[in-house]
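Lab channel / #folding
Pinned by the channel admin:
"Please post every new chain as: sequence first, then the structure tokens as a reply. Keep commentary short and put observations after the output so the thread stays searchable."

First post following the new format, from NK:
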Amino acid sequence: MSTQMAFQRGVSPLLQLLLPGKEDLIMSVMPDRTLRDRIDQLAGKSTEGELTEEERAEYEGYVRANKFIALMMREAKRFKAQSAA
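Reply from TO:
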């Protein structure tokens, strides 16, 4: 079993509590402009190999958060499709 599949299996019970009825709201979540700008800045510095250790830790936190948000959005879409069927 892949790490992603194990993670998804582990959080599935929680998602079943959080998602029903909130699918559209979850799928519409977007970071504010200031956060997007900061992530873009860190991504650029990462590409150039210019991140400080503190910036690297911050950027890795955003990457982890983005993966979790993507999982939530994917599951919200799945829940919505199942409820429409």
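NK: The chain is about 80% helix and 0% strand.
TO: also worth noting, The chain has a mean pLDDT of 89.
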